[in-house]
Design a protein that fits this description.
By secondary structure, this protein is an alpha+beta fold. 59% of the residues lie in helices and 17% in strands. The protein is built from three helices and six strands, in the order αααββββββ. Strands 1-4-5 form a three-stranded antiparallel beta sheet. It has a three-stranded mixed beta sheet with strand order 2-6-3, with no helix packed on it.
Length: 183
């Protein structure tokens, strides 16, 4: 806004353009103030939209992190015993060989079988399952072929004999079954 300075009294022509100029400036000032405030409102609305979007992204990130953490905890819980159960597999194999060596019906065989059943029960409670694929199709994801044998009775690719049982821990391979496959 321009300050009004008094003009000399004899100059009436110069007074009128100044008053028109001053009125136009005063009329334009409120308009520019409204425009400034409107622009500021637009800026704040854009900032608010940006803050809301950022909040939604952060909330989604936190939710994804929470889900990932729950998945990791579940995975750790399911496979926490993997090493222990893996170390027990040779004990299960030895019990099986002991039962076979003791012969059917002997007291030693029955005692070993009871011990084996109890150990398998505990292992199964912790997610271990046995792969005994005799008569089933060869599965390279779960079986390890140690030899092939011709067979007229079985289709090609069928497991004929298991030398060593395989084991899964919660549907994940712990040890493949060592098998003989038909040709």
């Amino acid at each position: 806004m321009r300050p009004n300075h008094p003009e000399p009294a004899g100059d009436s022509m110069s007074q009128e353009p100044q008053s028109v100029d001053s009125a136009a400036q005063e009329a334009s000032e409120p308009r520019s103030e409204v425009e400034l405030l409107s622009a500021r409102i637009d800026e704040l609305q854009l900032a608010l939209i940006g803050a809301r979007e950022e909040q939604l992204r952060e909330r989604a990130d936190l939710e994804n992190q929470r889900k990932r953490l729950l998945r990791d905890v579940e995975h750790a819980r399911k496979f926490a015993n993997e090493r222990l159960l893996g170390d027990l597999l040779p004990v299960l194999d030895a019990l099986e060989r002991g039962i076979d060596a003791a012969g059917v019906g002997s007291a030693v065989s029955e005692g070993l079988a009871l011990t084996q059943r109890e150990l398998i029960k505990v292992a199964e409670t912790n997610g271990l399952s046995t792969l005994d694929p005799v008569g089933k199709p060869f599965n390279p994801e779960h079986h390890q072929a140690i030899s092939m044998q011709p067979s007229a009775e079985h289709p090609s690719g069928t497991v004929l004999q298991v030398f060593q049982k395989g084991y899964l821990l919660n549907e994940r391979l712990l040890r493949p079954a060592m098998v003989v496959v038909s040709q």
